[in-house]
Amino acid sequence: MDSKKILLIFCLFFGLCLGIFFINRKGDNKSIVFMFPPTDFNPTVEVAGCHCLYKNKFLLLKRCSHKPQGNTWGHPAGKLNPEENPLVGLIREVKEETNLDLSNNKPKLVKTVYVRYPAFDFVYHIFMKEFDKLPNDIKLHKNEHQAFKWVTKEEALAMDLAPGEKECIELLMQSIDHSKTLKKSAKKKVRNTDVNWESEYKSSNENLWEQKPHTFSQDAFSYIQTGKVLDLGAGEGYDCMYFAKKGFKVTALDISSTAIDKLLKKAANSDLSINGIVSDINKFYAESCYDIILSYGTLQFLGQNFNGYISNLKDKTNSGGLHVFYIFGNKGDFYSLAHKKFYFPSEKELLQMYSDWKIIKFEQKNTKLLIKGDKGEALYNLMFKILAQKNT
Length: 392
Fold this sequence. Notes:
- By secondary structure, this protein is α/β, with parallel strands linked by helices.
- Helices cover 30% and strands 30% of the residues.
- The chain folds into two domains: 3-186, Alpha-Beta Complex (Nucleoside Triphosphate Pyrophosphohydrolase); 197-389, Vaccinia Virus protein VP39 (Rossmann fold, 3-Layer(aba) Sandwich), CATH 3.40.50.150.
- Strands 1, 2, 3, 4, 5, 6, 7 and 8 form an eight-stranded mixed beta sheet that branches.
- α1 (3-22) crosses α4.
């Protein structure tokens, strides 16, 4: 690889790591990494990188001293040729840099992100390859790298890493740990996943949920300070109370009459007016338009109505309005046990659903479930958190 190629990779890693932490933050017009192509995205190059893993260690290469960022460590990566398939290009780059032949045991594409710089756009394909045996045939390109090591996270962080590599390692290991937790939890035995919400709210002397609004609700207020709010699956109503206190006209829906009664009593005690509706979400369709629509952990109950229901909610959102959703995804205990009954979108599907809106904030987290395993053990599922704004 020439110096321009090395420089491009350095820029990519630095930008990627910063972008993952600062994607679409409020008031930030310098976001550089996107989960889907931003408006007028015009890539001039594509890049592929591979995280090579063996047990709890991964491969780092030390750059030659005469190269840009010489004597620093990073993982194999390189620019793709025009019209080159990302996997084909990655296999070629890894072969050139390390002599490892991945053609018969291909890496897995983890994610494709879209990177924007002031002067150009480019696409970055992130791959991961796990080895059952430690490769013993690594041969470095003498003009590119001078050494290699298989290292743990702790060992890597003590090394002289290329700019941005530390953040990439942290994110990689978090992703691996997250994946292992989901795989482990999916194997646990569990009782019926159905929850009788009316019984839960009646029998509970304490609050089922944390007694404060969700962070994403507070984020939403920073974008819209007045208007109408619809909360689907309002529960005990802490988000409803938050917006009502801010002066919004709030409609709260929940399948449990006890939950709505508790919510309305709290509102009355605070001299607040909230419109409470007791209904199954599948039997409720918004008729008027709202400025903010919330739903925390409820939309999976839509089942096969999911896509059409979301489409209706988008239509019933005012221009510039917001959707604030926590949605269970397609990995983990809940998905394994109930995917035939409920609906669990993939990350790609969810983001594509909002590709015509502005994604202000998007996160994913391994979330503890209310239900437990048959031995009382904790269960988990992937949760997507999205804050999206309708175009004006």
